[in-house]
User: Which sequence fits this backbone?
C-alpha cells in the first residue's frame, strides 16, 4: 500500500491498474517495480527494439 501511493502520483494512473498492466506485459517484473526506473527503461527498450 505504501509504495503504491507514490506510484499512482508518478504514473498518473491508479496503482492497481499500473500493477496489472505490468504483470500482463512482463510477468516477474517485481524487481523493476519502481515507476521511475520502469518509465525510463520502457521507452528505451522500445526504441532499441
Assistant:
Amino acid at each position: 500500500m505504501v509504495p503504491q501511493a507514490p506510484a499512482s502520483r508518478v504514473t498518473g494512473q491508479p496503482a492497481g491498474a499500473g500493477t496489472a498492466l505490468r504483470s500482463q506485459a512482463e510477468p516477474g517484473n517485481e524487481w523493476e517495480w519502481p515507476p521511475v526506473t520502469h518509465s525510463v527503461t520502457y521507452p528505451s527498450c522500445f526504441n532499441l527494439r
In short: The chain is about 65% helix and 0% strand. Residues 42 and 48 are 10 Å apart (CA to CA). The radius of gyration is 11 Å. The chain has one domain: 4-48.
